[in-house]
Design goal:
Helix 1 crosses helix 2 (44-53) and helix 3 (56-63) crosses helix 4 (69-86). By secondary structure, the protein is of the alpha/beta class. The radius of gyration is 18 Å and the shape is globular. The N and C termini lie far apart (36 Å). The protein has helices at 26-39, 44-53, 56-63, 69-86, 95-101, 115-125, 147-156, 170-178, 202-212, 216-219, and strands at residues 13-16, 23-24, 90-91, 107-110, 132-134, 163-167, 182-185, 197-198.
């Protein structure tokens, strides 16, 4: 962890990653990639380890260079869409309470997934969807580029230093840090390099997030 900037009252917006941060989708992702790997005759464990570190097109280039990457991506999308319809999902403990307490216009989702899948998962877990959702189709550069988080801030009318990023993965943490934002890590046994604060679970972070974000200005008759 690195020292947290001392900016009392400066943080007014929260930008959330989705998978691994608000939605527990690890088993779903592993199952989808296993099915994909078996379809292409690849080792599922090897494919999944590469997929954890790279975007899909980079994964295909590494594990299936002899196949058309567009065909590989279409197959992956088919499996992921089916998983949204039939897979079992759960929101992490504390997610519903936290999102319900944040005023509209003060938070956003920033995901490497696609909006229709996020909406499907949120509908199944009962979580609210915010006004601003930056997905894989919204940006040309995904995490760890700062572009996704900067776009979310811009759409909220926020400056980077007003934003608190909640993440679970190294690529997302780097994205938030490169955007010049405060980044807290959750749902990991050890802190991801660079986070300003680390919490073993989202539940542990809920009160601190709500205490840190000054929501009174938006609820006091503004």
């Amino acid at each position: 962890m690195i020292s947290e900037p001392s900016r009392p009252g400066a943080l007014k917006y929260v930008l959330f990653d989705v998978d691994g941060t608000l939605i527990d989708a690890v088993d779903n992702q592993r199952r989808v990639w296993r099915t994909w790997a078996e379809r292409y005759g690849r080792d599922p464990d090897e494919v999944y380890q590469v997929a954890l570190r790279t975007r899909p097109m980079e994964t295909f280039a590494h594990v299936a260079p002899d196949h058309d990457p567009k065909e590989c991506l279409a197959a992956l999308h088919e499996l992921e869409d089916e998983d949204v319809r039939s897979g079992v999902y759960a929101a992490f403990d504390g997610a519903a309470q936290l999102l319900a307490a944040l005023p509209p216009g003060r938070w956003a989702l920033v995901t490497s997934n696609y909006e229709h899948r996020v909406r499907g998962r949120f509908a199944r877990t009962g979580l609210p969807v915010p006004e601003v959702l930056v997905d894989a189709a919204a940006v040309e550069e995904g995490k760890p580029s700062p572009v996704p988080y900067l776009q979310a801030a811009s759409r909220l009318g926020a400056g980077p230093k007003e934003c608190l990023v909640i993440e679970d993965a190294p690529s997302g943490v780097r994205s938030g840090l490169r955007a010049g934002m405060t980044v807290w890590g959750v749902n990991a046994p050890v802190a991801v390099d660079g986070v300003h604060r680390h919490y073993g679970s989202l539940r542990e972070a809920v009160c601190d997030i709500l205490d840190t974000i000054d929501i009174r200005a938006s609820t006091s008759g503004a």
